[in-house]
Amino acid sequence: MPMSLVQDPELIAGFYDAAAHPDRWNNAWAAVCLAFDAENGVLFEQETPSAAPRILAATNWDTATPRLMGEFYVQVELDAAPAVGGISYRSHLGHLLTTTVPLEGVARAGLGLHRATTGAEFASTDRTALDNVARHVAAALRLEKLLVEARRASAMRGAALDQFSHGAVIVDAHGAILFANDPALRLAATGGVVLGAAGDGLSCDRADEADRLASLIYRAAARGEVGSARITRPGGRAILAVTVAPLPVAAGASALVIIRDLAATSDAAQADLMGLFGLTAAEAAIVPQLLAGDSAALIAQSRGVTVATIRAQAARVLAKTGAANLRALASMIAALGCG
Questions:
Q1: Could you tell me the pTM of the whole model?
Q2: What is the CA radius of gyration of the chain?
Q3: pLDDT value at position 313?
Q4: Mean pLDDT value across residues 38-51
Q5: Are strands 87-91 and 94-102 parallel, antiparallel or unpaired?
Q6: Packing angle between helix 124-161 and helix 9-20, nearest 10 degrees?
Q7: Going from the N-terminus, what domains does the chain have, and what CATH number goes with each?
Q8: What is the pLDDT of residue 85?
Q9: Three-state secondary structure call for residue 95
Q10: CB atoms within 10 A of CB 295
């Protein structure tokens, strides 16, 4: 059999496609059997020599194939270890071509092909070709394991982030959404940030803020930098604060975007501000309104004090926190996670 048949890009790509979609192993293996002109074939992996094999694919599975598996084991174990490399022999079942390839630790993958006694024996080129196939199968199985681990880690992160009170979105370096928790979806519904379905990009209503967010995401995912920004919302709604931090995962670098509504506060958040910066209760209480963009007059009216009092309290907030202005204060508080 010409080596070009098993070096065909489409045939090789079938293994890596099956790594991402395990239900496609049968399709990938059927293409191998066709390339080798084999009537039956079996592909399996085994965690330990004594463990039951995990059948990845089997063509023409019938009463003959279990016997083929038995013949495969007998021949592999009788052949001198290590059992790596094509083995061609004739049995009462016909012509068999088998090979194993090591995986992680003592795990291995096994490949077996069968032709009837009336068919041609497997040639030395077939043995070489099957070894080539086995190497790609091993690489695909390693990729499959990585993908399974990445999906499991993502699911665990998602479960944890759904309990988070702030919006949390996991994105790749280009802003494509990998996960968004329920608070993030609720915040997006009120405008300011734009969340699409998984795979779509995280963005903002305003173009300049969208560019700023995209830059922060790339720098976090690709360079490991932490950054923050404010996002305005239409109709005078309270400003959103975002903090972007690197979040490396098995499948590649990504970023965690925390989205907070600066108008939302709590007693615990005010206590944090008082403890961290030495703010008084009155000073901590006006911070959410200041960051939401309320005027000194509006805040004074809502709190039953004079405008001069609010301006004095705002000045003390900036002085105690060390923030140059309200924008800097918003970034600082977003990064600290207060609120």
A1: 0.46
A2: 31
A3: 92
A4: 84
A5: antiparallel
A6: 30
A7: 3-154 (3.30.450.80), 164-261 (3.30.450.20), 263-339 (no CATH)
A8: 38
A9: strand
A10: 12
